[in-house]
Design brief:
Length: 157
């Protein structure tokens, strides 16, 4: 149950003794084992990773690519990962304003960018480059990629 919220700092939940069931895959079908559960908001990357390394917190999300190798090399830490789903980090242009209202301007930026080098520099080989409107881990993304290839072929003809 909700216990407290400290803006930009922490959310704390407390055990609900009346909750005595779990999903079928859960071993515990009774009262939760934990009395409280706290979620700390640690926006600064180095502080968040340092909190994990010092056992101040038990888990963190959004591990910066430059910290992955160090965490993987620490025998006291289990690094779990999952592909992000949905729309990748994207550069959007406001096509209602010059020069981005012109297709040629947008195409020039696309051709000028070396996306592979940018992705390698930013993500240090930790993440795969998205080459479609949805990230590689998004369900249905392969179908979408095939549709895009088909449309490109039709447009090129």
């Amino acid at each position: 149950m909700f216990e407290s919220w400290q803006e930009n700092s922490k959310i704390t939940l407390q055990r609900n003794d009346e909750y005595q069931w779990g999903p079928p895959i859960a071993e515990n079908q009774g009262t939760p084992h934990l009395d409280t559960l706290s979620f700390y908001i640690i926006p600064e990357e180095s502080s968040r990773i340092g909190s994990v390394q010092s056992n101040e917190v038990l888990a963190a999300e959004t591990v910066p690519p430059q910290n992955v190798d160090a965490l993987e090399g620490n025998p006291d830490i289990d690094l779990l990962s999952a592909e992000s789903t949905g729309i990748p980090f994207t550069l959007m242009f406001n096509q209602n304003h010059e020069p981005w209202d012109e297709y040629e301007a947008r195409k020039a930026v696309q051709l000028a960018l070396d996306l592979d080098s940018i992705v390698d520099s930013l993500y240090l080989g930790q993440y795969e480059r998205a080459d479609a409107p949805l990230t590689p881990g998004t369900p249905g993304q392969l179908i979408e990629k095939r549709m895009i290839k088909t449309l490109k072929k039709r447009i090129a003809c």
